[in-house]
Structure formats: C-alpha cells, structure tokens
Amino acid sequence: MTGMTHAMLKGSNVPLEATAVRAVIRWTPGPDGHDVDASALLLGADGRVRSDEDFIFYNQPRHPSGLVRRLPKKLVAGGRTDTVEVDLARLDPSVDAESTTWSTDRE
C-alpha cells in the first residue's frame, strides 16, 4: 500500500476515498511506560459492530475474511508503531464503515 500520509490530532476524523488503508500510529513511550493498542471496527448501517468477528484487536488480530488485520507492533527509532490494514474494496457490502481506533491502558 502506498499513498498519502495524514497526521491527525486526538479525536479527529478523516473521510477517505481509497480502496485500501494502512493506518500507522507512532509514539514515544513516556516514563510511565503506558502502551498504545490499535483496533479496527467494521460497522453496519446502524453504526454498530455487526458481530464479535468485526472487532479486530490484540486478541483477534485478523478478521476471518483476512481483509482487516492488525500487524505486530514494531520498535522504531525513538518509539514504537502499531498498524491496521484494511482492504476496503473487498469488504462485504453490509459493512457501511470502518473505524480505526487507538487506546491506552493509562488511567
């Protein structure tokens, strides 16, 4: 996958006209050691995840179709990355939207 790079601020949304997406988050762990986890959600027309299979995260890194996957985290110079890849063009027509999110265990 190649294409544009778009830096996003916390809480922002970006509509994309693309057939495939590779979303990468890069962060530098602070002294508290908190980690970041990527997730992908396949949403139906009602804006909800259709089933547990449509929630891709660290314990379920691939959708059964293989069209959505969370790659292993990587150590990079000065930080870490977490990546989600989605083949939008081949998703089931009942998938209305895909949402990529990141969370931290920080309280």
Automatic annotation (TrEMBL):
Coiled coil: none
Source domain of life: Bacteria
Domain (TerD): residue spans on this chain: 4-96
Pfam families according to UniProt: TerD
InterPro entries for the chain: Stress/Tellurium_Resist (IPR051324), TerD (IPR003325)
Family: Belongs to the CAPAB/TerDEXZ family.
Annotated protein name in UniProt: TerD family protein
Taxonomic placement: Bacteria, Bacillati, Actinomycetota, Actinomycetes, Kitasatosporales
